[in-house]
# Entry
Amino acid sequence: MPLPTDDFYRIKRLPPYVFAEVNAMKAKARARGEDIIDLGMGNPDLPTPPHIVEKLIECVRDPRTHRYSASRGIPGLRKALAGYYARRFGVDLDPEREVIATLGSKEGLANLAQAISSPGDVVLVPNPSYPIHAFGFIIAGGSVRDIPVTPDETMLKAIERAADHSVPRPTALVLNYPANPTALTADLDFYGRVVEFCRKRGIYILSDLAYGEIYFDGVPPPSILQIKGAKEIAVEFTSLSKTYSMPGWRMGFAAGNARLIGALARVKSYLDYGAFTPIQVAATAALNGPQDCVEEARTIYRERRDVLIDGLNRAGWKVPSPPATMFAWAQVPEKFRDVGSLVFSKLLLEHAQVAVSPGEGFGEHGAGFVRIALVENKQRIRQAVRNIRDFLARADSSMGQPSAGESSPVRPAPRPKRKSAAKVVVP
# Structure
């Protein structure tokens, strides 16, 4: 019998893992032999490009690479990341002072939160957002103040109110565009106004650009580091997970403000010896090598997006087409809104054999939405759409009761009571 853990200080601050309920249902369904189409976790299914894999194999055969590596990242890898920023954004970075390799962007965000936070520090985080954006600081003892997620005047005014009325004043602001889970994008005008305000108020900016290369409408998402003066206060996190289909390799970066990079490097020096050297060498090959694989992946995700959005709209579920990321952010159909996204996600799993992520897993303002990941091929997505269409046609407006003649009613579980912690965690 597992021992209780909820009496530890930091564990008390972590809410229940809401997606565990859906995961458990999914596992039971598969054990029964059901074919579940999993559009839940944002786990890229595309293979890593061959030239990257070949470089890993070549390097791993050299026993000299089997020793401890460099926590900050090998010099060639940091230079490659600086080269990427120069080509893509026209941003000059010092590989020694302004770039560090991380074990995925998630680890970098969490360790930087540990480095710069004191108990009670206030951090501004959009809601809904990817869980580590808030919980990295919560684990570090900080306090999170929610702000709107849309990159517009409303968000700018919320940042100003928070700066004026939070005690203590905010230490940092987290931004994530293209956004997970909402797929919203930001432009340079927005970044410019945020940087100007935060420089005046002495607020650090942590920008998550993990989906910077997964875009569909012709306009590449910008980097906040393109803004003049941004490096005085901002650090940006990127990852190879989505760009090069390398999620399991755990290779990411932080770049920007030298003071923040130095703080992260100091914490990491106590915690890890860096990624396995062959992985770092292969990551260098990814950044320096041919980039047609990135465009190919982008095209595949765009085609999947179009199949999903067109199919759901034809089925009567109006879902906006995401301009970027590998996700669609969908409001729960009207007839199901009273029960919330967790129950709706369970119903889709049970009666349509499709798994999605309930929106409240990304914060209380995600309630009423689900996140749908583009991580199955087009044929499987078409099947998922057919299953969802049939389910929506069977269920009537009484929510969960089938139309006349159906033999197996859809019975929603009671909506869970909201606990004191506003956010719950989803991968």
In short: The chain has 13 helices and twelve strands.
